[in-house]
Design brief:
With 292 residues, the chain is α/β, with parallel strands linked by helices. Helices cover 41% and strands 22% of the residues. The protein contains 9 helices and 14 strands. The chain binds adenosine-5'-diphosphate and N-acetyl-L-glutamyl 5-phosphate. N-acetyl-L-glutamyl 5-phosphate binds next to helix 3 and strand 4. Pathway: Amino-acid biosynthesis; L-arginine biosynthesis; N(2)-acetyl-L-ornithine from L-glutamate: step 2/4.
């Protein structure tokens, strides 16, 4: 009886949040850095499945950087990055495509299905979901050739809308397709930001392996809220660097396109998605357009 009363309490607390998100799209990016153990992965997939059951429309974008690194190292190739983006020669492209589409995507689909959901895995090649061209200019405006890394030209979101219309949950691997028919490797945070923009999502959530964004190198706390202007300052001062750069830029892109809320949160916390969405406390760092 006590257990039932506790569950009813949780449901009552969650009700206004469920109403607010009912029928809306939430884009969830699951980063490779947080995909550490099977129990945690399962808890993320349970949250995503639950969202679908209560009438929210989750769209999953996944990373898999550490898995790509592992396979490259087995082939005696040293992974290299520029501003958090993988330098991708032809062989690395082949490995990235194999790992992201062949391994990570199918693992996530299987985990959602095991949790009771119905997931369909696609890459940006399927239905021309992600039209890409070669990435040429870095964040400082400098010409930079990092191989088969893609810039997103267009998201053809119809394929996601068709999948999500019924009981299915789309799961997207971050590989784009060029006019030349070539595959392009695209950072998964960038893909998530663009997909959230194209779908006019209500929320974008980026799950990673830190609690949120540290506002200084020595801080042991995270910033609960940052504006886009504060984010640009932190990048300029080198406090936001590496893999955090595409995340914050993905959030800002989404905010500029009308996505209401963007969050960077700790995917290592069990049920972090539900904690962020359905409690007053929220977790992680929320990035906003201006001051709130
Ligand atoms: N200011 C910052 N606050 C917190 N983490 C940061 C910051 N700047 C850079 N990072 C780094 O970003 C990493 C997350 O990016 P990444 O490793 O690419 O993860 P994912 O696989 O989830 O995309 C963190 O582990 C952390 O080392
Ligand atoms: C161009 C680029 O950097 N692509 C990424 C795609 C995977 C990814 O983004 O994985 P995480 O989210 O786990 O970092 C890569 O090759 O690692």
């Amino acid at each position: 009886m006590e257990e039932l009363i506790k569950k009813a309490g949780i449901l009552i607390e969650a009700l206004p949040y469920i109403q607010r998100l009912y029928g809306k799209t939430v884009v969830i990016k699951y980063g490779g850095a947080a995909m550490t153990d099977q129990v945690l992965k399962a808890s993320v997939m349970e949250d995503i499945t639950l969202l679908k059951y209560i009438g929210v429309n989750p769209v999953v974008v996944h990373g898999g950087g550490p898995d790509i690194n592992k396979t490259l190292e087995q082939l005696d190739i040293t992974p290299q990055f520029h501003d958090g983006l993988r330098i991708t020669d032809a062989q690395t492209m082949e490995v990235a495509q194999m790992v992201l589409i062949g391994k990570t995507n199918k693992e996530i689909v299987a985990l959602i299905n095991k949790a009771g959901g119905k997931a369909i895995g696609v890459s940006g090649i399927d239905g021309n979901l992600i039209e890409a061209e070669q990435y040429k200019t870095d964040i400082n405006g400098k010409q930079s050739d990092i191989g088969y890394v893609g810039n997103i030209k267009r998201i053809n979101s119809k394929v996601l809308e068709i999948i999500a219309k019924d009981e299915y949950i789309p799961v997207v691997a971050p590989i784009g397709i060029g006019d030349d028919g070539h595959s392009y490797n695209i950072n998964a945070d960038t893909v998530a930001g663009e997909i959230a923009s194209a779908l006019k999502a209500e929320k974008l959530m980026l799950l990673t392996d830190v609690e949120g964004i540290k506002p200084s190198k020595s801080a042991d706390n995270i910033a609960p809220v940052l504006t886009a202007a504060e984010v640009y300052d932190l990048i300029e001062n080198g406090i936001i660097d590496g893999g955090m750069i595409p995340k914050v830029l993905g959030c800002i892109k989404a905010l500029d396109s009308g996505v209401s809320r963007t969050h960077i949160l700790d995917g290592r916390i069990p049920h972090c998605i539900l904690l962020e969405i359905f409690t007053d406390r929220g977790i992680g760092t929320m990035i906003t357009k201006g001051s709130v």
